[in-house]
Amino acid sequence: MIGLSVAEDRFPLAETFTISRGSRTEARVLTVTAADGAHRGRGECVPYARYGETMESVAAGIEALGEVGDRRVLAEAMPPGAARNAVDCALWDLEAKRAGARAWELAGLPEPGPEITAFTLSLDTPENMEAAARRHARRPLLKIKLGTPDDMPRLEAVRRGAPGARVIVDANEGWTADVYSDLAPHLLRLGVALVEQPLAADEDGMLGEIDRPVPVCADESCHDRVSLPSLKGKYDVVNIKLDKTGGLTEALALREAALAEGYGIMVGCMVGSSLAMAPAVLVARGADVTDLDGPLLLARDRDPALTYDDAGVHPPSAALWG
Fold first, then answer.
1. Which strands form 22-35's sheet, in the order they lie side by side?
2. How does residue 18 score in pLDDT terms, banded at 50, 70 and 90?
3. Mean pLDDT across the chain, nearest whole number?
4. Strands annotated E in the chain
5. Which listed residue (97, 143, 145, 234) is catalytic?
6. % of the chain exceeding 70 in pLDDT
7. Considering only CA atoms, which of 237, 224, 235 is closest in space to residue 288?
8. Which of 97, 143, 241, 244 is catalytic?
9. pTM score, two decimals?
10. Is 97 a catalytic residue?
11. Contact between 195 and 217 (Cβ < 8 Å)
12. For this structure, is 145 an active site residue?
């Protein structure tokens, strides 16, 4: 049997990070270690209050498992979410170390390469968002956090600050159907490539009835493969996050199922360290949009950490994960 342990780690952010639901100055994560006596594997998760998770509840769920035999039975033992994600990824890491192989080989995937990742500009005044866009205008892909009724000046400001960047928008469920309909033609005019979750997940039916001139991505509305039937006719892209799917195992299955149904693929993250991003890099291979910038928002990261450069986010070293 494989023993599990869980610990909290904290990583200060380089700047205050704000979305429509609130602000934070640090990333609080749970790190799971899976050990069989000879080898150890690690995984990381970020509990998210939006899904009813707390640091305490997720840690308790992991501790309740005690020991596990195989990651393939996790789906029966734990629901999708942050707890299962950390355990699943720790078991992948352990399996790779046992086999002396890389995780992508065990998954039957080609060796991944670097992927261009979005860099997120948090919600702020138009003036501050324009200044942030100018500071990061060299980046090929910027993600703007929005989600208020007064977002038009913010959109215009970011485009002025970074006229050459590809831009995507994340409303974090903060718009109504009327606000989205008013903004949609301006999203198109300003060259926005994609908009994430414009409406609340339980009020997104209108997306099937109104024009979507810019591709719309399901984030809070898409957790795992069970979510897919409810997305039909409303969304064009699905955002795969391991903390929602409950780990790499389900994330890879969701990617395959979503592609088969004609959805575009975005691979996203919570604000966590390189250990959380590392398995997601496998899912991001060839994705339409990669958004794995969590470590870029930190003042301090894991050691070793993922490599980020002009080519994007690189696959993890074996010393980090997998």
1. 40-45, 22-35, 2-19, 67-68
2. confident
3. 96
4. 2-19, 22-35, 40-45, 67-68, 119-121, 141-145, 166-170, 192-196, 216-218, 237-240, 264-267, 289-290, 308-309, 312-313
5. 145
6. 100
7. 237
8. 241
9. 0.96
10. no
11. yes
12. yes
